[in-house]
Amino acid sequence: MLDFRLDDEQQMLVDAIGRFSADKVRKQFREAEETGELPADVVQAGWEIGVLPTAIPEDYGGFGEHSVVTGAVATEAFAYGDLATTLKIMSPNQVAIPVMLCGTEAQKEQYLPLFADERAPKLAAALTEPVYQFNPRKLDTTAVRDGDEYVLNGKKIFVVGAADAETILVYANEDGATQAFFVPAASISVGERDKLMGLKALDTFSIALDEVRVSADSKLGGEAGIDFGKILNHSRVALGAAAVGVANAGFEYARDYAKQRVQFGKPIAQNQSIAFMLADMASDVESARMLVWEAAWKLDKGEDATRDVTVMKHFIDRIVVDVADRAVQTLGGYGYIREYPVELWLRNARAFASFDGMTFI
User: Fold this and answer.
1) How many whole angstroms separate alpha carbon 320 and alpha carbon 244?
2) pLDDT in tens, 206-259
3) Read out DSSP for 70-109?
4) Which end of the chain is more exposed for a tag (fewer CB within 10 A), N or C?
5) What is the mean pLDDT of residues 337-349?
6) Residues facing 172 on adjacent strands
């Protein structure tokens, strides 16, 4: 029998992230959106909560054991505060989790201790490509073996922190299979910062690889390579958890607004159309959360969760937009004004359908 109640440690973690969101994130996320810059001290404070270091085994310098369920509840709590801040704080996961899942022993010993430091390492990852109907299992970026080296060619977008990275984990097509390669950032051409509809505070970039050569041992997982399906599942559960956080933020804001906004002598929450819409939003958020937690639980059990993750992603990509849109509707004309956060959450919600690989748990 499944039991999705949080244990004491998970509840303490959610409470700590909740305080962080209330005390730091919610006070600056609108300004960060307008200026396009996340405050470095806020990002550092989020890193110091230690979600990733506590997931790294002690053998590699960490402080605990990897739990996808714990990562999911933490990610939801972060995203309830702000999605751009969440993706920045969790950007090191894009390298750490794939290394934990599929890295060779030598790669784990080389990279994982970096994520147990007081500051996040300057590493990034690149999966998404600027193509119509992007399919992470059929990449246009290629990796061709040439003796003791691989030659990489291709273009990527949505690379968080690419301008400051020292090494970038690049996903590429090798003989029809998606593999990943550690590439020195100095050999990669970093383009202009992406101009996004939402997430304007998040520093994502396009990159280009033109005949970039890396040694064969730069391939994640060594000669055997990676189980990309497993890596993709972990990414999609993380994004699903973040989407629940965004949807829940929209729902709770709309609910509280509807209780306080008085028209014709009574709160608009008492109007049947508004009440039914809020009830549907609450139901959708809770359903999405259960789908995320069940998929995360199966990953922790070592089960094949591909079907569960696929169903979850299909449902949540739609639900997060629907809930955010209904939050805007609840506020009426105010919902379209930038002074209120619901329009930002709607723009951010639209991103989930395009953001494979943007975070991992």
Assistant:
1) 7
2) 999 999 999 999 999 999 999 999 999 999 999 999 999 999 999 999 999 999
3) HHHHHHHHHHHH-HHHHHHHTTTHHHHHHHHHH--HHHHH
4) N
5) 94
6) 179
The larger pLDDT score, comparing residue 46 to residue 263, is at 46
CATH of domain 228-354: 1.20.140.10
Q: Would you say residue 177 has pLDDT above 60?
A: yes
CB neighbours of residue 310 within 10 Å? 14
CATH code 2.40.110.10 region(s) in the chain:
123-224
0.70 exceeded by pTM: yes
Cβ pair 17, 85 in contact under 8 A: no
The residue type of 163 is A
pLDDT score of 2: 60
Q: Where are the CATH 1.20.140.10 domain residues in the chain?
A: 228-354
- Looking at domain 123-224, its CATH architecture is Beta Barrel (2.40)
Distance CA 123, CA 360 (A): 14
CATH superfamily of 8-116: Acyl-CoA dehydrogenase/oxidase, N-terminal domain (1.10.540.10)
Query: H helices of 261-332, where?
Result: 272-300, 306-331
